[in-house]
Amino acid sequence: MELIYTIDARCRDCYKCVRECPVKAIRIKNVIGSEAQKAEVMKERCVHDGRCVLVCPQQAKKVRNDVDKVKELISSGRQVVASLAPSFAAGFPLDKPGRVISALRKLGFASVQETAFGAELVAAEHKKLPADRTFLSSACPSVVSLVEKHFPDLISYLSPIVSPMTAHARIIKSMNPGAAVVFIGPCIAKKDEAEEEQFTGTIDAVLGFGETWDWMQEEITDLEHLPAEYCEEFDGPRAGNGKLFPLDGGMLRTAGMSTDGLDDSVMVISGLKSCMDFLNHLQQHKACKAKLVELLACPGGCVSGPVSVSEEDVFIKKQRILDYFHENVSHEDDRKTFSFKNIELYRSNSNRQIPLPRPSEEELNEIFARTGKTNPEARLNCGSCGYATCRDKAIAVYQGFAEMKMCIPYMRERAESVSNRVIAAMPNGMIIVNRDLKILEINDVAREMLGVSGENLKGGDLSRVMDPANFLYVAASGLPLNRIMNYEQKDLITREIIFPLGSEEIAGILIDITEDSKQKEQQDILKNETINRAEEVIAKQMQVAQEIAGLLGETTADTKVLLTKLIKLVKNK
């Protein structure tokens, strides 16, 4: 299963994930045999910042759940150690952060240790980097992926140092050979990092705070009142300033470097869009006064990770981290107590950019033509498709990331065009009005029928062309109506079928039945004349019968019966 996947049945073609994804790692594909589309994450472009997961209004984007994998590790009999990210203090909706530690023990972890200690080793190593050039911190896996996949010519700026997660996992395994390490944090990208080939065997599984919290709620009845045997203190080496690592500037503070915002030797940038702006600047100018730039994909730092459970704002979360730091800071430097000289803290970075085809101007113009945008003025750059400009979207179509019908103005125009053609081609009159009975559409048949062929009627009152009573009834009742109307001044008789179109519009179909009515009227006249003539014949027959009754006998009576039956038959018809 992909790390971030889409539940197709929930995807509603809103393109919000496309709009929100800074690296445009979302592909929109037409569903075969259907008018529907689905959004899928392109792993080769994705930096796993989790923005699409957070913003999807239908909750169609999901992160792979690895709880079962961890349960299998625990049930296997191996010693399973939890490496808990320092942002845990603000990542769970619990009054006391220590409850998270005790809950993990209750779930079956043999040991719970703080990743913050690995962060201290990583920060110290960053401080040793040469001061004659600019380095970009490599602690955030989303930023590392961003550089490797989208800014590969800046890879040389990335510091060659592992993340706190990897450093801490190696510490744990150096102290506990054979142990399985499960990292637990607020970051989706950590799952991707753990699966990199160079880290094979380092981290056995990664859980987000969200899936961990769900597991806790399933297994533990009262998280706030666990028995004392489930200690709320960390095992293993204790961290000091490393507890501040999840805040922007936390790495600099942990390394003992300046955190002064006006110090041009260091720089802190958080939020993926801001990171991209800086990388674009660096790519263009190839120069930066800062010797170390701390780049964090999440605004405010890891404390705002995408799979955090707490719904508090970043300011409250920051305060919770600071409170936990002040209450639990270790004044002893465990880096001196334990020996970690043999821990490998370096990594490699590689170009993972996927070359993409670029369309020629002629090819772009062909795509524009297919969406009715040959005229530059028709390129609205509205962004509703998820791309900043029509040109960007056309390039995405060429590259196979987008579909023609993602363009909402084009699809609306296309739908209106089809609708207008249907209305225009109807053999009957068609009128569409809004709830205020203002004319929205009227076809030529209705115009001719009502004697208003040359007038501009759109936006005008319906009462200008016909009696609006039937439309008023439908607007008020919401019920369809089928009625015959006689417009004597127009020498017009119509059958009007009027019905609501949704909640805002009303449609009326006008069928001209004037000729049919006239024919029926003529038939009625002919029928009445026939009846009258037959009655006259009967009267005359009876008069003659009285005069020659003796001669005709019963034949007269039979004739009267037959003619009377004929009259009744004609009247019934």
From TrEMBL:
SMART domains: PAS. Residues 3-31, 37-66 form the 4Fe-4S ferredoxin-type domain. Pfam families: Fe_hyd_lg_C, Fer4_7, FeS, PAS_8. Its EC number is 1.12.7.2. PROSITE patterns: 4FE4S (PS51656), 4FE4S_FER_1 (PS00198), 4FE4S_FER_2 (PS51379), PAS (PS50112). Keywords: 4Fe-4S, Iron, Iron-sulfur, Metal-binding, Oxidoreductase. This is Iron hydrogenase 1. It comes from Pelotomaculum propionicicum. GO terms for molecular function: 4 iron, 4 sulfur cluster binding; ferredoxin hydrogenase activity; metal ion binding. Residues 415-488 form the PAS domain. It comes from the Bacteria.
